[in-house]
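S1.2 Input.
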Amino acid sequence: MGTKVFVLLQVHNEQIARELCDSRAAQARSKLEKKKKKRLLVNSGDGKPVVPLVVRGDVVGSLEVLVELLGARQPEELELSVVSTGVGDVTEGDLDMAQSTGGSYNSIVLTYLLYCT
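S1.3 Output.
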């Protein structure tokens, strides 16, 4: 990971401070929206965006039902792709899998009845 750099600015009146804050907030929202859109841009063979999923559950039965439901309820506009499943807490391996699947796009880690610590 890179080093975070913080910049402190001193302004001389409230109006300039508000304008600066509004501008920075708009830039941050724009970057966030671009990231959200980019996350879904991995295309399948039929041109649909693919959402890779890492699925974890509390017990095998719950996990099987969850994966089955995800497969049966595919939205028309995108494709859900389960890339990894497992029972028990989310592991570092699961996070590595989520980060590495889909090229430069991240998977979604979906958990059922698990606590995240």
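S1.4 Remarks. Residues 14-39 form the longest helix (26 residues).
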